[in-house]
Write a structure and sequence with these properties.
The complex is a heterodimer. Chain A is α/β, with parallel strands linked by helices. A 6-stranded mixed sheet of chain A has the order 6-7-8-3-9-10, sandwiched between helices. Chain A is globular and about 70 Å long. Chain A is built from 13 helices and 13 strands. In chain A, helix 3 packs across helix 4, helix 3 packs parallel to helix 6 and helix 4 crosses helix 6. Chain A has 2 domains: about 240 residues, Rossmann fold (3-Layer(aba) Sandwich); about 80 residues, CBS domain Like (Alpha-Beta Complex). By secondary structure, chain B is an alpha/beta fold. Chain B folds into 3 domains: about 250 residues, MetI-like fold (Orthogonal Bundle), CATH 1.10.3720.10; about 100 residues, Osmoprotection protein (prox), domain 2 (D-Maltodextrin-Binding Protein, domain 2), CATH 3.40.190.120; about 170 residues, Dipeptide-binding Protein, domain 3 (Roll). Chain B is built from 23 helices and 10 strands. Chain B has a 5-stranded mixed sheet with strand order 2-1-3-10-4. A 3-stranded antiparallel sheet of chain B has the order 8-5-9. In chain B, strand 6, helix 18 and strand 7 form a beta-alpha-beta unit. In chain B, helix 1 crosses helix 4, helix 1 runs parallel beside helix 8 and helix 2 packs across helix 4. In chain B, about 45% of the residues are buried. Classes of the chains: A alpha/beta, B alpha/beta. At the A-B interface, helix 2 and helix 3 of A face helix 5 and helix 6 of B. Bound molecules: adenosine-5'-triphosphate and magnesium ion (MG). Adenosine-5'-triphosphate binds next to helix 1 of chain A. The site of adenosine-5'-triphosphate has 12 residues of chain A, from helix 1.
């Protein structure tokens, strides 16, 4: 759907903001660009809708080189939410969302229906909000509108630059969850920029890790957390690696450690591990049940039991393995 | 001095006329300034060349630092060198426009520059074209700042436009200048109060326009900007008030409180520099005042000597105030001053184009005596009559115009009559204007407040005016730079010949009176010190200096 072929970008100095990037983003994929500040995420994103033009290399969308397309036309067919969710302060929420549809010449009724639908999709009551101005909404509500504006004209491709930045963790979680379920319905091709590792691993179908303009690794969250491609990726994940492992490894990966004798656990699922549980969820169940051993269930069948030590012991050799992989 | 009440009744039409003209000057200047400054500001805000930006904004800023009066003078000089009209509305408007450009330009530039670049980015991202970004994002967001600039420019322009009266563009400045010349509070108020009210009204009107043009929620921030321009208004009001108060205090204190053992002289600016004025006089009579003579506006001179703040002034023989204020003129015993017989000075091309003009104006030949001129001047300066009504009475009395004139709509040409900005010239200008208008099919336009000799003479040479009343002595000494000659006929003949050869200008027959310069003192002073000639005065001044 979107391909980068040896794309580089410099802002007129020796330093390359993006350095020889080649990768493919598949249709319907939620693709995350992850990296520290200044690593070139925004630059890479903005080259897709020609807000910046690459210094060398080619980018294609749907097989067509974007350099051969009219930039204004191109942008009307690609949703974009800018870093810091900037809504136009002189336009109402409704007017903000309606921009691209009206630029594309939709008729009025269609635009009104669309705006109402989008507001409902992002969890804002249209009657309450459509005529308000951005300054009359909270930061989180503004970000929802920013997402709505990006998908307003139902574009096949959406670019989002840290859409959930600068917001409290609880609201961010909720926005992420809503966005995931929205994406499950819409199946857009989304390029999503973030510097938040957990956001990347939670949302991304695949993740590209950038450092100083160079793509260090492209892969699914599982691939990246188990087999870091470089020293940089390992350091970048840092201590979060343990947490990511806990979140991305499942109980059934510890099948060898199962004890066939299972203690009685009744029917309370809180005190029974599921084979599909993440290790993080498993640790949480050990903690809340105040026991060191819990039964493991696969489907409706109890397949054995597991001790808390076997979970923690598992982490160390895996972590070692990761280090060895680099 | 007429009461303010009757003054307003008598001059209401003039006040409203000048106010309308003032509004016209202001609105045209600000509109043109907007048309120039807003696009320029937009372009500057988008150019990548910082050098260009600082050059343009810098030079606009420098333009602003030039005092309004100097700006007017510069424009007039440039126009003169390019042979363009140096008087009237056009040069005035150019000066006002130049003045109004900076605040609008600067605010447009800052307004657009201060639009969050992220919003421009989003604008591009959602698919706006560059033009749509400008019209739908940048300009609406910059509007409050741009409007604030326009408001500042408008208030400034209303203030500066009062200066344009100096070059005959009219407006409320005309009334203010008259007030200053004749120390008439009525005139001063008639010019100042409408100007201040106008500033407030325009500012308020633009405030409403600003609310109307400002989209949505940015209106909330409006108060911030409104505050700054309200400040500008009050500044202008305070400035004008200070100016008025300052003038009075200047006369009352600086001049009046100057109790002195020595004679203090005050002359008008032209007399102070002309060869047939103070420099030549001082040399011939060897008369040197202890303190340098003060420079005062002609209208202020009489006030100052009457109130004993000065002892010696220059005056004109025909000035009505000499008698009215109990003043006497000293005899020019060494024959310094040349004769100053007034006569119409006309372009030859005008005489060729309208041959009936010369015989018509020559009907005024020897019709005005020293006394009758003095009486007419007195009627305007001290009895609150207008120059036009005095002129009309004179023409009727001498049967120079038909008793009942029907308004003539079928004008076949235009004559422009100029005049220096003092009463006698206004009266003579009106006499000639009405004479022509009521006896021919020509339309007459008058510019009777054109500053001094040089402005009038240049306007005549360049054809901005067709004629104006000039004095033979002024022609000889001031314009031709010749030595003083006493015989009036010789002076007239030299003027006639040389002006015709050198400038293609014709001196018509003199009106009859000799408005020579005089050295004027209070009659009480003359009696006390037994002064009758200028030599007496020179002698006394010398004695005072040596302390005896
Ligand atoms: N318009 C520009 N002109 C010059 N240099 C720029 C410009 N935009 C970005 N850069 C430089 O390019 C590099 C990459 O910037 P970019 O904005 O892509 O980083 P980022 O990964 O989005 O960072 P952040 O997480 O802070 O948003 C940085 O070194 C930055 O200084
Ligand atoms: Mg960025």
């Amino acid at each position: 759907m979107i391909t980068f072929d040896n794309v580089s970008k410099s802002y007129g100095n020796a330093h390359l903001a993006v350095n020889a990037v080649s990768m493919e983003i598949a249709q319907g994929e939620l693709f995350v660009l992850l990296g520290t500040s200044g690593s070139g995420k925004t630059t890479l994103l903005r080259m897709i809708n020609r807000l910046e033009d690459p210094s060398s290399g080619t980018i294609t969308v749907d097989g067509k080189s974007i350099m051969l397309q009219d930039p204004v036309e191109l942008r009307r067919n690609i949703g974009y939410s800018v870093q810091g969710t900037r809504l136009f302060p002189h336009m109402t929420i409704g007017e903000n969302i309606a921009i691209t549809p009206s630029l594309l010449g939709w008729d009025n009724q269609r635009i009104i229906n669309r705006v109402n639908l989008l507001l409902e999709m992002v969890g804002l009551d249209p009657h309450l909000y459509v005529h308000r101005y951005p300054s009359e909404l909270s930061g989180g509500q503004n970000q929802r509108v920013g997402v709505a504006r990006a998908i307003a004209a139902d574009p096949p491709v959406i670019l989002m630059d840290e859409p959930f930045g600068a917001i409290d963790p609880i609201t961010r979680e909720r926005l992420q969850d809503e966005f995931l379920s929205l994406q499950a319905q819409l199946k857009k091709t989304v390029v999503f920029v973030t510097h938040d590792i957990f956001e990347a691993f939670k949302l991304g179908d695949r993740i590209a890790i950038l450092n100083e303009g160079v793509v260090q690794q492209v892969g699914t969250p599982e691939e990246i957390s188990s087999i870091p491609a470089s020293r940089f990726v390992l350091d970048f994940l840092g201590q979060n690696r343990i947490l990511l492992l806990l979140q991305n490894r499942r109980v059934n990966e510890l099948e060898r450690d199962y004890d066939p004798v299972a203690p009685y656990s009744g029917i309370d699922s809180r005190y029974t591990l599921d084979a599909q549980d993440s290790l993080a969820a498993a640790l949480d169940k050990f903690r809340s049940s105040h026991t060191r051993r819990l039964p493991v269930r696969s489907g409706n069948e109890v397949v054995g039991s597991l001790t808390v030590e076997s979970v923690t012991n598992h982490l160390i050799p895996v972590d070692k393995l990761m280090e060895d992989a680099v | 001095m007429a009461s303010l009440h009757t003054f307003i009744i008598n001059f209401g039409a003039t006040i409203s006329h000048e106010t309308v003209r003032h509004i016209y000057l202001t609105v045209v200047a600000v509109l043109v300034a907007c048309l120039v400054a807003i696009p320029t500001g937009v372009v500057l805000a988008h150019t990548k060349r910082q050098g260009t930006v600082s050059i343009v904004l810098g030079s606009a800023g420098v333009m602003q630092t030039v005092p309004g009066l100097a700006m007017l003078a510069i424009i007039v000089m440039i126009f003169a060198s390019m042979k363009l009209p140096t008087i009237g509305v056009v040069p005035a408007l150019i000066a006002l426009i130049l003045y109004a450009i900076l605040p609008i330009l600067r605010n447009t530039y800052t307004g657009i520059k201060s639009v969050d670049p992220g919003l421009v980015d989003v604008g591009l991202g959602v698919g706006f074209t560059r033009w749509q970004i400008l019209t739908k994002v940048e300009l609406p967001l910059a509007m409050p700042v741009i409007m604030a600039g326009i408001r500042i420019a408008t208030v400034w322009t209303i203030g500066t436009a009062t200066l344009c009266a100096l070059i005959g563009a009219g407006g409320l400045g005309d009334l203010i200048l008259k007030g200053l010349r004749s120390i008439s509070f009525n005139y001063l108020a008639a010019g100042t109060v409408p100007a201040a009210l106008l500033a407030l009204a325009m500012d308020g009107l633009l405030g409403l326009a600003e609310i109307y043009f400002t989209p949505g929620k940015i209106r909330r921030n409006r108060e911030r900007y409104a505050g700054s321009s309200r400040l500008a208004t009050s500044r202008v009001v305070v400035l004008i008030a200070l100016l008025a108060v300052g003038t009075f205090i200047f006369i009352r204190n600086t001049v009046l409180a100057n109790h002195h053992k020595y004679f203090v002289a005050a002359f008008d600016s032209e007399f102070l520099i002309r060869q047939d004025g103070y420099p030549g006089l001082a040399r011939l009579y060897n008369m040197h005042f202890r303190n340098r003579p003060l420079q005062l506006d002609p209208g202020l001179l009489y006030q100052a000597i009457k109130q004993k703040s000065v002892d010696v002034i220059d005056g004109f023989a025909t000035d009505g105030r000499i008698k009215a204020y109990h003043l006497v003129t000293l005899q020019d015993n060494l024959h310094f001053f040349p004769p100053y017989f007034a006569a119409p000075l006309v372009r030859e091309s005008t005489l060729r184009k309208y041959p009936m003009i010369a015989p018509l104006l020559n009907r005024l030949s020897n019709k005005i005596t020293d006394d009758s001129m003095r009486a007419m001047n007195y009627a305007v300066d001290n009895q609150g009559k207008t120059a036009a009504s005095v002129a009309h009475a004179f023409l009727m009395q001498n049967h120079l115009i038909p008793p009942h004139t029907v308004p003539n709509r079928y004008r076949t040409g235009t004559i422009v009559i100029g005049g220096k900005s003092f009463t006698e010239q206004a009266v003579l200008g009106q006499i000639m204007a009405q004479l022509i208008e009521d006896n021919t099919n020509l339309e007459v336009v008058t510019h009777l407040t054109l500053g001094g000799t040089i402005i009038c003479f240049n306007a005549l040479k360049s054809g901005d005016i067709d004629l104006y009343p000039e004095y033979t002595g002024t022609g000889l000494v001031d314009i031709l730079k010749r030595k003083v000659i006493q015989n009036p006929d010789t002076v007239y003949n030299i003027d006639k010949r040389v002006f015709q050869q050198r400038f293609h200008l014709a001196w018509l027959h003199p009106f009859g009176f000799n408005n020579t310069y005089t050295i004027t003192i209070r009659s009480s002073t003359a009696a006390k010190w037994h002064l009758s000639t200028i030599s007496d005065l020179a002698h006394l001044v010398d004695m005072q200096k040596s302390g005896s």
